[in-house]
Amino acid sequence: GWQYWLLVAFLGLVFLTGGSSRGDVQSLAFLRPVSIGVLGIGLLTLRAEHIRRFKSLFLFAGLILVLVGLYLIPLPASLLSLFPAGEMIDLTKAVAGPASHSASLAAAQSWNAFYALFVPLAVLVIGAQLSREDMFRLLPALLVLGFASGLVGFLQILGSSEAAQALFQRIENAFTTR
Hints:
- The protein is mainly alpha-helical.
- Helix content is 75%, strand content 2%.
- It has a two-stranded antiparallel ribbon with strand order 1-2.
- It is flat, with a radius of gyration of 23 Å.
- It starts with a helix and ends with a helix.
């Protein structure tokens, strides 16, 4: 069905633009909103039978989402001083003034981790809707995407002239020593 083609296209986009969890990678500014859109489409067509079929995966994904989300909830500074890094929070409060902070000491990285979850969630929600036949058809597509990704990585290695020279020297030695 259409879910198969959406998932293949989305995975192709992930392979082209993804591969990093760093928040400063420019391609994520495109990938993450698209993943939220794909997740939204998937949620509109998700049925209880899909969730039951992959109950443990949905439960695990939900727990991860809640765990990361908990770090983003603003907490009063008095409560934060009870955390193991409470002294650092007290120092921050003394410098910046009293305010509510999240439990995360690196809020930007916590938001990055939260937004990063939308990519696998979109794959899970769309993938759970695939028929058995579509799941088997997905394997060759994943193999092609994996091969293409490996080829791109190989070409990136060749981008370094020293690495390219060493690689070509090894290939040449393999054929000339016979």
